[in-house]
Fold this protein.
Amino acid sequence: MGLTGIQIFKLLPKTNCGECGSPTCLAFAMKLSAGQVELELCPYVSEESKAKLVEASAPPIRLVTIGTGDDVFKCGGETVQYRHEKTFVNPTGIGVLITDTMSDEEVDGRVRRLKELEYERVGMVLKADLVVVKDASGDEEAFVKVIGKVKSSGARKIILMSEEVSRIRAGLKVVGDLRPLLYAATKTNLAEMANLAKEHDVPLAVKGDGLDEVAELTTVLTEKGIKDLVIDSGSRILPSVFTDQVGIRRAALVGGLRALGFPTITFPCEMTQDPVEEGVIASTMILKYAGIAVLSDIQGEVLFPLLVQRMNIFTDPQRPMATSEGIYEINNPDENSPILITTNFSLTYFIVAGEIETSQVPSWLLIKDTDGLSVLTAWAAGKFSADGIAAFIKQSGIHDKVTHRKLIIPGYVAVLSGDLEEELPEWQIEIGPKEASHLPAYLRNRG
């Protein structure tokens, strides 16, 4: 368990300097306890206190980073078993498998899809994360060649997959500067893989035959000073993998077992030949705590549902999902197209935007920032008020896009129409339907 705010406060310098961005050391300690700030923000904490705080406040699931610079993938760092307790922190990484037996065309296609298949949703860019390069041929030269090809394609978050230490060593000569994850240390190659990971300062995956063996191997590695570990229980049957994933998370968080306090890597690509079933397995892994899930290929019809599911699970449940404030063009509007306005609660946005698309009427949709609240809730909270809407309209730039001055507001806040006409005297306020499902007919019959 992490330290409480008071326990952290006792280790801080108590200068109340405010240089960390918090007014007092106690306020900073409370934020640090809640995981809202980093310890590095305090310029005066002693090295002794820093060492104690880092060790004591480390999350039960260790944070592991793959890659360098700003372009990195992070897994682990989790502190809760259930997302409603706090929130899950680092989304499951989705990787694509590339082997050294594939043709150049197939390799190029997988890397291209990894880079091109990305989707924007509620202001977030959703995409896969990692390339897993597997030694399938047993030929070191072929392995090194495909690693070089992947690197030259622009991939920067890479997993090298081979149990032959000599081939991993050869691969590191090509991508060691990218800080790849090495997969995998096993009972037979543990010492050599440990030395290699330590020499190059890269994270190491540990593969065991069951959780007991994994715990034994991680204990040996941590005693050697190697702590950036990712674990694989070795199971490749869904019920067993599911049980292992839950067991690992529970052992680390509830049982305090440090030997299993690491993010996990799973391989849906090795559990079925059916791409749809593979997607279902990957979905289960995202639900049940996998740090990384490796797919045999990336296709939009499988990837997109996984990305949306991942986004939903790793969104803070205590904060409503919201889209960005701004002007949204639907059905290619022009200067004469109607203007509608609603709040930035993501569900409201998607429902309203979907109904406008269904109407096939070119329209401008204005999204007002209401801290992610729905229309009635935002109105009741004073975040969807006449003066706020008027200020947004004036600064939005919609004036430059249309020749008319007619604004359609949701029917549930018809009460705002009079105040809006006072705030926007040059605008005509129209009251739209209460239910979004009535928008297509309303827009078509508006005249």
